[in-house]
Amino acid sequence: MDIIFECPHCTQELSIDAEGAGTWIECPACSKKVQVPEPEAKEAPAAVVSPPAPANRPAPAAPPAELVAGKVINAMASSAGAKESKHFSVPVHEGPTESLIAKPLPTLEVSAKESDRQMRIKSFRHSDHVEVGKDHFDEHLNQFLGKVGEANVIQLNTFTYTHQDLATRAWITDYGVLVIYRG
Ligand SMILES: [Zn+2]
Q: What is the C-alpha to C-alpha distance for residues 52 and 46, in angstroms, rounded to an integer?
């Protein structure tokens, strides 16, 4: 199992074989001497997935002179340099980003077709649909609603209004229907 830890000098994330625990290596990023922590100490397996905050990590003591002289391991030779590259790799987002650029065009076309249908209003005044004593109000309203289609009818409102009868000069209160629809 590899030990993944952070260089206390430059915070570069490093990984090294568990055999290297407790030894001193030269950080490949800042070239300073770093002591590899014991795997069971600060770097539990969970820490590999999400490294703990720097505050949780006690700073390693300064390297004792005799260890630096004796057991310095070349980080690149122990493959720490090769393994650290996985912490830098970020091309994961290239695919989704490209598809996001490609998609808006068809999406806009579809929404343009949908927006061809606009919210409209049609008012039916009862007196406008009465001809020579024949009441065509319901008939005309039914024809209109059938043409619009039930799915496109948003709302039906009734209203009353007054108009002056041409023949009798009398003011008549009548009713009508306001159709709010999509078409
Ligand atoms: Zn470093």
A: 9
Q: How far is the CA of 8 from the centre of ligand 1 (A)?
A: 7
- Asked if 14 and 80 touch (Cβ cutoff 8 Å), the reply is yes
For the chain, which ranges sit under pLDDT 50? 41-44, 46-47, 68-71, 73, 75-76, 81-86, 88-108, 110-112
CA atoms of 86 and 9, how far apart (whole Å): 20
CA 91 to centroid of ligand 1, rounded, Å:
24
Q: What is the distance between the alpha carbons of residues 61 and 35, in angstroms, rounded to a whole number? A: 8
**Nearest partner of 17 among 82, 65, 94, judged by Cα:** 82
Query: Do 37 and 15 touch, CB atoms closer than 8 A?
Result: no
pTM: 0.37
For residue 49, give the nearest of 94, 13, 10 by alpha carbon: 13
Residue type, 2: D
- ∠ CA 54-60-62, nearest 5°, is 140
What pLDDT, in 10s, does the model give residues 101-135?
444 444 445 444 555 788 899 999 998 998 888 99
Distance 28 CA to ligand 1 centre (A): 7
Q: Whole-angstrom Cα distance, residue 149 to residue 181?
A: 9
**Predicted pLDDT at 94:** 47
